[in-house]
Amino acid sequence: MIKNLSDQKKGIFLSLIGILIITPDSLFIRLVKINSWDLVFYRGIIPFFILLIGLIIFYKKNFFKAIFIIGYAGLINALIVALTNITFIFSLENTNVANTLVMLSLAPFMAAFLSIFLLKEYPKKRTWIAMFLCFIFVLFIFNDSYQSGRLVGDFFGFITAFLVGASSVVIRIGKLANFLPSLMIAKFFTMLFTIFFVKSLYLEGADIYLVPIMCVFFVTIPLAFLTLAPRYMPAHEVELFFVLETTLGPIWVWLIIRETPSLETIIGGSLIISTLLIHTILELKKPNLKKS
Fold first, then answer.
1. pLDDT tens sequence for the chain (292 residues)
2. Is the entire prediction scored with pTM above 0.70?
3. Domain limits of the chain?
4. How far is the C-alpha of 110 from the C-alpha of 87, rounded, in Å?
5. Contact yes or no for 272/106 (Cβ under 8 A)
6. Contact at 8 Å (CB) between 105 and 272?
7. Three-state SS across 153-179?
8. Which of 291, 278, 273 is nearest to 103 (CA)?
9. Is the Cα dihedral 94, 100, 104, 110 positive or negative?
């Protein structure tokens, strides 16, 4: 059925499903007890082998050809995604889930900014206005985090948003290639980067099932969808769907472990989400005559 959809609808479908599946990820990161480096290692090695097996089954004798065809863009994307895996965990370890996900919601504007230089896709005036407003709201949250000792976590969240935006732009640059092999290589790089910092790979208690569930259902599957999405629509439009994670992620955490964000984060995050929603509605309301 998806084959009969337009490119834009394919992109929307892949982005929406990917983000909806990934929303409990932050909660599971909070629930597990293992060391941060150990967790990042598992979030590399388990998705790597799942993607490796899946791609071998799908491509069969063309497996190595599918890897080589991703080219330099695929390797660059793999490095970016590997770094994203690390900065995301470090952000969550040093600040509230809500703060991290609010920072992550800036990814569409990061992608829009990078698209100007790398894709010659120029955002509209309203996108620039929305970017400026969100930047002001982020400074408001940063100020609160500085006073509360969470600035390091927020900074890593901001870097994560930049890397997520950069990844979607690179994927769009190489849109003729299937970038799932790039995601597989990214997970291999993640495993390679972190293996030197791992303290113990022993899982006990609830971690025995929480870690595998997280790595399969909230890492591998949604990232596969989100890796394919930028092939069909502008990178910054794909990243707009991260608003859903920014909204639903903290709700999962609040419902299960009662982690409550600060008033400043709620205010700043609400303003960012409102800005993104208004921007998205305006984008969908008036079809573009040319790609932005």
1. 556 667 777 888 888 899 899 999 999 999 999 999 999 999 999 999 999 999 999 999 999 999 999 989 999 999 999 999 999 999 999 999 989 998 888 888 888 888 888 888 777 788 788 888 888 888 888 888 878 888 999 999 999 999 998 998 898 887 666 889 999 999 999 999 999 999 999 999 999 999 999 999 999 999 999 888 877 877 667 766 777 787 788 889 989 998 888 888 889 888 888 887 787 777 666 554 444 3
2. yes
3. 2-285
4. 16
5. yes
6. yes
7. HHHHHHHHHHHHHHHHHHHHHCCCCCC
8. 273
9. negative
What CA–CA distance (Å, rounded) separates 40 from 163? 16
Task: Describe the crossing of helices 180-194 and 36-59 by its angle, rounded to 10 degrees.
Answer: 150
Is the Cβ–Cβ distance between 128 and 187 less than 8 Å?
Answer: no
Judge contact between 207 and 253, C-beta under 8 A: no
Query: Would you tell me how many other CB atoms lie within 10 Å of the CB of residue 284?
Result: 11
User: Dihedral of the CA atoms 102, 51, 177, 192 (nearest 10)?
Assistant: 70
Which residue's structure tokens are 């899946």?
A: 54
Residue with tokens 């989400």: 273
User: Tokens standing for 16?
Assistant: 């929406």
Is residue 245 a contact partner of residue 101, using CB atoms and an 8 Å limit? yes
Both tokens of 119, joined, read: 């894709």
Q: Which of 78, 40, 43, 10 is nearest to 217 (CA)?
A: 43
